[in-house]
Specification:
- The protein is an alpha+beta fold and 896 residues long.
- Helices cover 28% and strands 21% of the residues.
- The protein is built from 22 helices and 35 strands.
- The chain has an eight-stranded antiparallel β-sheet with strand order 6-7-8-9-17-13-12-11. Strands 1-2-3-10-16-14-15 form a seven-stranded antiparallel β-sheet, with no helix packed on it. A three-stranded antiparallel β-sheet has the order 20-23-24.
- It is globular.
- It starts with 8 loop residues before the first helix and ends in an 11-residue tail after the last helix.
- The N terminus and C terminus are likely disordered.
């Protein structure tokens, strides 16, 4: 919890000083962090099956006994930046069938709405250099209901709520332990660890705490036989473990008190899992579990007094508390130190370090906001910082298989195999993940959005992340950015340039080197889009699903039937916006290097060509604008035998039709004053092609480019700000509520039915775990807010809209942006009943402070009620709430 005492001057500057020293990913203060994954099983990386079903190839039930190939996972754990040495918490309540070493959740096939974690934990605090981190995990005292949760989800339909842990009664009467894990760095390589478990139940309850230290298995695959070692030693008053690694060096883990030290190896139990005759070694990954829970005395080595044990690669310190009284807390302390250790590991320096880092975190996160908002911002940023995970994946080795393992199935070597065209992909970096359990891999547009709130607290990391995705070991040689692990070749919206501008503008001292580096890379990506996603050069783009999963009546990643092709309103608009963002970057760079000036005109011309095609011409002669409805739609087109082209709109009012609003940008007076060549070229172009003038507005010495002219923008905003359509109490819906009763739409000569679904997805499209047919999503809402602010900046208060539509209440574009922000942030603030809308009907909405003190950041939110849905730790892009709450551009409250 935040400390309320006095913060000295050293505390005020300490974290900022550490950040100043840590402008690279390998800086000392960044060596250790929350880089251990929340889930490694069920990922594409660990899938070596012929069929490519990652969930069944490496299920949860294998995780405790099977060595991972590419990473590790654990509860409230940390590791070094290379992912070699890991420290995490295991628990046992005396009733579970196996140790609690990782979070449990349902796979796509098991969950009635796709994959879904069934645990409760919260990242409660943190600083960007990870000098201070704190996580709370809630552990039931009864036997964890694994089978019941699976069965409840199996019989539940897609129209029913997801079964949760609270539905089983496992949390009744507060019969759980809250396990708070705190990390405080005394130095970059000296980590003080405090684990405090509190019994919130009415009865005494046993608890076994087993902090574990282990090495990632790098030696079993036939590529590097070198094996690190963990040597555990005990004496009358102390316990310690020495870790030796060829690259990481030596570390010593001090363990307070006299717990039992158990040593095993991070090796697969092939006998248990696959029925082989014998295991490669005597001890296996599940050795600690089989010793403590299974009472198998031969499962691991027990280190006795003055015993120099044989080295292992996984060690647990077994503390047994039987019982813990109601309201009582028990604490375990550890200290991980580089070298031979600390002479007084648990002396005064330990508690002084913990207390000092708490104080420094309080000062670092001071915002001047009211306490309720400040708490939301701090939790959002803490969760965002915990999304950093070590991500290792060498695709060519994954496709070909390892020398010491069975040969790769033929299905993995075909040209159509998953990620077969990404053999260059070779990553071993810390990357920000969307959600540490449900999405423990990066996604291109998620990462771009995550960089924006990151820039508020850690601009160096934000810039490094944006550049990383453009580096040659990730970006395809043809310029495509990898979309996400399930299929790198899929397509996410091109928002990288927008994010780069946001990060660049957030710093007081402009970093033009960063802007130039990412601009050069994005030139390659822009060319890929133009060459690959505009099939006939019409300036109308296809794109694919573009991250918005089931938003359309058909799967937009699959080819159309017959001769039909899909021209997408959102793909076309994203590219128009991309052109403007690259133009803005080029203009900024041209202020100091005139070589960029004519590059900026290239993107102006590209934007204007897209704008022209989107409204007048295009392959079907109609573009994406529909004059009848005053809205933008996808279109399906085909070539007829006589050579003409037929085009039909896909009349579904969704976020697809709002993306055109985002394609706008202003030219400030300095552009016309400092860049004469750019100015002359723009004026020449508009004089020669007057039909393009509607897309360029002038007010004095300023100008604005917009895909929608003022009349069309007003028509689209009329629908967007209509509470019967897109405007919900908590933001802009992804599908119009006017489709609440459903609609039938013809696409490529086939009838399809869909409708407004405010909550969880009712279709299995893209796994069914995300729904873009009604809920509110933070990333697109944040972009709409930004677009309204751009309109406000250009019109300077003279552009008014009715908000809500038909209310006779008129506000400026800036006030409309403020109102959207108010609705979005209201999700996380108590309403008149004292409840957060985002908590909905979940257990978090209970009156108990044990629940209501914890804010949950969900993947998306019910379009009617605001209840948080989907992934439950999406302090990836949902951390944008921190940016919205601290945006200084907010004007007065909306009024007439």
């Amino acid at each position: 919890m935040p400390h309320t005492g006095r913060v000295n001057e050293h505390s005020r500057q300490a974290e900022r000083a550490r950040l100043a020293e840590s402008d690279s990913p390998t800086a000392p203060w960044r060596l250790w962090g929350p880089y251990l994954a929340g889930r490694q099983w069920g990922t594409v990386r660990e899938d070596y099956s012929a069929g490519g079903d990652a969930w069944t190839s490496f299920p949860f039930d294998h995780a405790r006994s099977r060595a991972y190939r590419w990473g590790e996972d654990g509860i409230a754990g940390i590791c070094d930046v290379h992912g070699f040495l890991n420290l995490g918490v295991a628990l046992w309540n005396g009733r579970d069938p196996f140790l609690k070493e990782r979070y449990f959740g349902l796979t796509n096939d098991e969950g009635n709405h796709g994959e879904d974690v069934k645990e409760h934990w919260w990242v409660t605090d943190g600083t960007p250099t990870h000098s201070w981190m704190q996580v709370v995990y809630r552990y039931p005292q009864c036997e964890f209901p694994y089978a019941e949760l699976r069965e409840r989800a199996r019989v539940a339909g897609r129209n029913e709520r997801e079964p949760e842990l609270s539905d089983t009664g496992a949390l009744d009467g507060n019969r759980f332990f809250d396990v708070a894990v705190s990390y405080a760095k005394a130095s970059p390589t000296d980590l003080c660890v405090e684990i405090t478990a509190t019994n919130h139940g009415p009865d005494p309850a046993p608890l076994h705490l087993l902090p574990q230290l282990w090495f990632r298995n790098t030696w079993s695959w036939g590529r590097d036989a070198r094996k690190p070692s963990l040597v555990a030693r005990t004496n009358d008053g102390w316990r310690r473990v020495t870790a030796e690694h060829g690259a990481l060096g030596r570390y010593t883990l001090h363990v307070e008190g006299t717990p039992t030290l158990l040593v095993t190896d991070n090796e697969t139990n092939e006998v248990e899992l696959f029925g082989t005759e014998r295991n490669p070694g005597e001890y296996t990954k599940d050795g600690v579990d089989r010793y403590v829970v299974g009472r198998d005395a031969r499962a691991c080595r027990v280190v006795g007094p003055d015993d120099t044990s044989e080295p292992g690669t996984k060690v647990a310190a077994w503390y047994s508390f039987d019982p813990v009284e109601p309201g009582e807390s028990v604490t375990v302390r550890l200290r991980l130190v580089e070298g031979d250790g600390h002479l007084d590991a648990f002396g005064p320096s330990f508690q002084d370090t913990v207390q000092q880092r708490r104080w420094e975190a309080d000062e670092f996160h001071a915002t001047g906001l009211d306490p309720r908002r400040a708490a939301v911002v701090r939790r959002a940023l803490a969760g965002l910082m915990w999304t950093k995970q070590h991500y290792r994946f060498r695709t060519r080795e994954w496709l070909d298989g390892d020398p010491a393992q069975p040969a790769a199935p033929k299905s993995r070597t075909t040209p159509h195999a998953r990620n077969a065209h990404w053999r260059h992909f070779d990553v071993a970096d810390v990357i920000s993940m969307p959600d540490e359990w449900e999405y423990p891999w990066f996604a291109a547009w998620d990462l771009a959005f995550q960089a924006v709130p990151f820039a508020r607290v850690d601009p160096a990391f934000a810039k490094e992340q944006l550049l990383l995705l453009c580096r040659e070991w990730l970006m395809h040689p043809n310029g495509q950015l990898p979309a996400y692990e399930w299929e790198f070749g899929d397509v996410n919206p091109p928002v990288h340039a927008w994010a780069a501008l946001q990060v660049y503008r957030s710093e007081e001292v402009p970093d033009r080197k960063f802007l130039a580096k990412i601009f050069h890379k994005l030139l390659l990506n822009f060319s890929w889009w133009v060459n690959r996603k505009d099939a006939d050069g019409s300036y109308l783009f296809e794109g694919g699903f573009l991250g918005m999963d089931n938003i359309g009546p058909v799967n937009r990643s699959e080819p159309m039937l017959g001769q039909w092709r899909l021209e997408q309103s959102d793909a076309t608009s994203w590219m128009a916006a991309y052109s403007l963002h690259l133009m803005q970057i080029a203009l900024e760079l041209a202020r100091h290097d005139d070589a960029y000036e004519d590059v900026a005109t290239k993107f102006v011309e590209h934007f204007l060509s897209i704008a022209d095609a989107s409204t007048q011409f295009g392959s079907g002669g109609r573009g994406i604008w529909d004059e009848t409805d005053g809205f933008c739609y996808d279109a399906v087109t085909r070539r007829l035998p006589d050579g003409s082209t037929e085009s039909k709109p896909v009349r579904v009012r969704s976020m697809v039709g709002l993306i055109p609003v985002l394609a706008c940008a202003t030219l400030e007076p300095w552009v016309f004053q400092e860049l004469p060549d750019f100015t002359r070229r723009l004026e020449h172009l508009l004089s020669k092609r007057p039909e393009l003038k509607p897309f360029v507005s002038r007010r004095g010495d300023r100008a604005m480019f917009s895909l929608l002219d003022e009349r069309k923008l007003r028509l689209v905003l009329t629908r967007m700000l209509d509470e019967g359509e897109f405007l919900s109490p908590h933001g802009i819906r992804s599908l119009s509520a006017a489709h609440r009763e459903g609609l039938e739409v013809q696409v490529a000569d086939q009838e399809h039915r869909m409708g407004y679904e405010p909550g969880e997805s009712r279709t299995p499209m893209f796994g069914g775990n995300s729904n873009w047919r009604g809920p509110v999503w933070f990333p697109t809402n944040a972009l709409l807010v930004e677009a309204l602010r751009t309109v406000e900046e250009f019109h300077d208060g003279s552009f008014h809209v009715e908000l809500p539509t038909r209310s006779t209440r008129h506000v400026t574009a800036g006030q409309a942006a403020d109102e959207l922000v108010r609705r979005l942030v209201s999700l996380f603030l108590p309403d008149h009943d004292g409840r957060r809308p985002a908590d909905g009907k979940r257990i978090e909405s209970t009156d108990s402070p044990l629940w209501r003190d914890h804010v949950t950041f969900s993947e998306y939110f019910d379009g009617d009620t605001g209840e948080g849905l989907g992934a439950t730790h999406q302090t990836g892009w949902t951390a944008l709430v921190a940016s919205l709450m601290t945006d200084r551009r907010q004007t007065s409250a909306p009024g007439t």
